[in-house]
Amino acid sequence: DQQVKQNSPSLSVQEGRISILNCDYTNSMFDYFLWYKKYPAEGPTFLISISSIKDKNEDGRFTVFLNKSAKHLSLHIVPSQPGDSAVYFCAASAQSNTGKLIFGQGTTLQVKP
Amino acid sequence: GAGVSQSPSNKVTEKGKDVELRCDPISGHTALYWYRQSLGQGLEFLIYFQGNSAPDKSGLPSDRFSAERTGGSVSTLTIQRTQQEDSAVYLCASSLRQGRRDIQYFGAGTRLSVL
To answer: Using CA atoms, how far apart are residues B59 and A28, in angstroms rounded to an integer?
Structure first.
């Protein structure tokens, strides 16, 4: 079963506008969430994270929001830039485990100039 | 400093052959993870090493898959009698493991194609 889901395979936005990427999870034991960004032929790189005790974390143009009751998180990129075009993966981990990450399927973001 | 290095970057093999994939983690990182990404899918956890021991092998899909880590550094993932469904990108990640929430740094992966 897919414990972390990214239901939008792709998203296209105009440069300068906001990009919103969504992620849903089913396991209530998840207490730490991350977003990774992946360019073609490269490994994923860490972008931003959030603990379940918070509902928002901001780092420059990137903000992650967590809604625990809805088991939903989102990544906002403002303003979007063409260099942000990549695949974005949502990931989660549970306190009981070894730090292994459970990933969503990814969303391909295209930012048009 | 150097990042996580994986070799080979690409591997084409025939069904039934054995393959070995190598991961050199970032120096000083005690934790090492293997994941794989099949076409159109997210990353799937395979195995976790802390030092040379593997306390979590729960993601290995079958007994054809095995992994070892030596000297607390290099790790090798071995797939015996490869099948076409083993075709995927195999990714290795390492972390300092100072806390459960440390960042995992990924290599570029090995793309395995089983013909």
So the answer is: 20
Whether A106 and B42 lie within 8 Å, measured CB to CB: yes
Q: Beta strand B10-13 with B110-114: parallel, antiparallel or unpaired?
A: parallel
Compute the distance between CA of residue B106 and CA of residue B92 in angstroms, rounded to an integer.
6
**For residue B98, which phi and psi values (nearest 5 degrees)?**
-80, -20
Task: Indicate which of B36, B101, B103 best probes the interface with A, i.e. most A CBs within 10 Å of its own CB.
Answer: B101
Quick check: B45 and A102 in contact, CB under 8 A? yes
Closest CA to A34 of A97, A79, A91: A91
Do A10 and A70 form a contact (C-beta atoms < 8 A)?
no
Task: Dump pLDDT digits (tens) for A19-57.
Answer: 999 999 999 999 999 999 999 989 999 999 999 999 999
Element spanning B44, H or E = strand B43-50
Q: Which amino acid is at B57?
A: K
CB distance A66 to A55 below 8 Å: yes
Residue-wise pLDDT tens digits, B23-55: 999 999 999 999 999 988 889 999 999 999 988
> B101 and A32: CB-CB below 8 Å?
yes
CB A110 within 8 A of CB A85: yes
